[in-house]
Amino acid sequence: MIKVANLNQSFGKKTVLNSNSIEIEKNEICALVGRNGAGKSTFINSLLGLLPGKQGTISINGIEVTKKSQVWKKAIAYLPEKFMLYPMLTGLENMTFFAEAVFKKADLGRMEQILKSVSLWDDRDVQVKSYSKGMLQRLGLAITLYQDASVLILDEPTSGIDPMGRKEILEVLRNLHDKTILLSSHHLDEIKQVCTHVAYLDHGKMKKYTVEEFLQTHQLGGNES
Predict the structure, then answer these.
(1) Per-residue pLDDT at 219
(2) pTM confidence score
């Protein structure tokens, strides 16, 4: 789970996050929603320990996020909006490289299982320079899932992907079990499809809703947040 208590972040005189507290429970899929510039990236970078909070605490599965301890990092995996891959390597070679960077030795059986789950096993020996954007995103997700972390932070995982590619990624997310997921998204339709809750960030303050509560409270029915 993710627990944030009284988190403050500011840049100069500008307060970006103002005393935010939120808990994302085990097995919840929570959408992180807010207008451009609302502080979503700042919040994510705080969770990842990249931006030390000015005030407040963050814990992942009960372990506080600090520079002094690295234990919490084992519980969390992050998929950025643009995953940096090696274009001249194949999909399987990319996955092997990142797997060995973390675990020293890659498990081919596990990689096969995960690549099949994201519909990339048949394209495993194709150089990723030939992959579509949707395929690149699915490969990034596969590499993230290989870490088998209990907490996943996904930053716009379907951004710029065609409808079929989005459908495939959402299907993978729906079939994940025993994961706590924070999903940054602008698409209300995908939030309604896969998420249980919404963390809405507005003017530095964050509030958590169920998806139904969020849609009713903000009277949103379109595709953008």
Answers:
(1) 56
(2) 0.87
Token pair recorded at residue 170: 């959402």
Q: Which of 201, 168, 167, 171 is nearest to 184 (CA)?
A: 201
pLDDT tens, position by position, 168-225: 888 888 888 889 999 998 888 889 999 999 999 998 899 999 999 998 887 554 444 4
CA atoms within 13 A on the CB side of 48: 16
pLDDT tens track for 13-26 = 888 999 899 999 99
Name the H helices within 147-207: 163-174, 188-194
Q: Residue 24: in which H helix or E strand, if any?
A: strand 14-24
Q: Which helix (H) or strand (E) segment is 85 a member of? A: none
CA 146/CA 194 separation, integer angstroms: 21
CB within 8 Å of 81: residues ≥ 6 apart: 155, 156, 157, 159
What is the rounded distance in angstroms from the CA atom of residue 113 to the CA atom of residue 5?
Answer: 37
Strands of the sheet with 14-24, listed across from one edge: 14-24, 2-11, 55-60, 63-64
Q: What pLDDT, in 10s, does the model give residues 122-133?
A: 999 999 999 988
Other CB atoms within a 10 A radius of the CB of residue 19 amount to 14
Tokens of residue 94, six digits: 């990319």
CB 26 within 8 A of CB 180: yes
Q: Which domains does the chain have, with CATH numbers?
A: 2-218 (3.40.50.300)
Among candidate residues 194, 192, 195, the one with its CA nearest the CA of residue 215: 192
